[in-house]
Design a protein that fits this description.
Elements: H1 6-13, H2 17-25, H3 32-44, H4 51-54, E1 63-67, H5 78-91, E2 95-99, E3 115-118, H6 125-130, E4 137-140, E5 153-156, H7 159-172, E6 178-183, H8 191-206, E7 212-215, H9 221-232, E8 239-242, H10 245-248, H11 251-257, E9 266-271, E10 281-286, H12 289-305, E11 312-315, E12 319-321
Parallel strand pairs: 1-2, 1-3, 3-4, 4-5, 5-11, 6-7, 6-8, 8-9, 9-10
Antiparallel strand pairs: 10-12
Length: about 325
């Protein structure tokens, strides 16, 4: 039984998943004989103890927490993500608490039943303060170096793969040599680094010279114009893929200011909603952040009610979208 779940054990033993969960936690009215059978089956199946599950408290606070690091908090992606988390949490009877960077030195984790980390990094003081807490943690996107025994689950977008797909869509609409404009990559699992990897792999397959410009998450007009001018300076770049919508929305005006006609440079971007796709784009990648937040919250709520034997893992699908008249 590879990577068993409580449902797998329940089916194998012919008992309910609630009984299995209570037996593993040492709670509830479970006969000692049944508890022994559950523990033996779990060990035989390769059960790896999850400290968050072992230490899960019996009393519920009625709330879960969401932590969005300050360095990305103002990006348009994160508001619909948080709304998705809040709505899904409400379906399970939980309120949502938003955690700030100032929470690193607090003991306030006692006021929530579980935590979602989105695009966090191990060096973050808030993440470090959370590790000793007896709480299930679900990450939206993998966190490099995060202890496996502290993760109840991970939900992620396969950014490298999806980057290749939007580049294919751009190529099908006449983009022969796209350049990538992206924010500074974080750790090895950060979405920006995955986009860079996807772009480089695509260029290698197509035998195209990679052209990348890294700018700050919220560049000034001068910084953005300089990056666009550098990307287009070689003369062979005919299109631009933006790693985040917040900068892509400023691209047309910036291109005009540097003497480039926007219509002659094909544009595409990762988007927080396909509603932000307009006729200026040949393609977009809708990350569906609201649905991403829902899925992540559902995994956390499930891990609170039924602690997993091994960390859950789900992939959230992003969608390549085209303008209405883009075919």
């Amino acid at each position: 039984m590879g990577k068993p779940t409580i449902i797998d054990l329940a089916r194998h033993l012919g008992i309910s998943k609630t009984t299995v969960a209570d037996a593993l936690k040492g709670s509830g009215r479970v006969a000692e004989e049944t508890r022994a059978k559950v523990m033996a089956a779990a060990q035989e199946a390769g059960y790896v103890s999850n400290r968050a599950a072992r230490q899960l408290r019996e009393s519920s606070t009625g709330a879960i927490a969401l932590y969005v690091p300050q360095r990305v908090r103002n990006m348009s992606f994160y508001m619909p993500f948080a709304l998705g988390v809040a709505d899904e949490a409400a379906k399970h009877g939980y309120d949502l608490t938003l955690v700030s960077d100032r929470s690193a030195d607090r003991s306030g984790w006692a006021h929530v039943d579980g935590v979602i980390l989105v695009d966090a990094m191990m060096g973050d003081p808030v993440v470090q303060s959370l590790l000793p807490a007896s709480l299930p943690i679900v990450t939206a996107g993998r966190v490099a170096g995060f202890p496996e025994d502290r993760a109840a689950g991970t939900v992620e977008i396969e950014h490298a793969k999806m980057c290749g797909e939007i580049l294919d869509a751009m190529a099908s609409h006449g983009a022969e040599h796209p350049a990538l404009i992206c924010p500074e990559p974080g750790d090895e699992y950060s979405w920006a680094r995955q986009i860079v990897a996807g772009y480089q792999e695509w260029c290698t397959r197509r035998n195209i010279r990679p052209v990348m410009e890294v700018v700050s998450s919220f560049p000034t007009n001068v910084e953005l114009e300089a990056s666009l001018a550098d990307a287009l300076s070689g003369g062979d770049v005919d299109s631009l893929l933006f790693g985040w919508q917040d900068v892509a929305q400023r691209a047309e005006a910036a291109l005009t200011r540097i003497g480039q006609h926007p219509g002659k440079v094909k544009l595409a971007s990762l988007l927080s909603s396909q509603d932000n796709l307009n006729d200026s784009y040949v393609a977009g990648l809708d990350l569906q952040p609201y649905e991403f937040g829902q899925k992540t919250a559902a995994v956390l709520c499930e891990s609170i009610s039924t602690p997993p034997l091994t960390p859950a893992h789900q992939v959230h699908e992003a969608l390549v979208v085209l303008p209405v008249d883009g075919g």
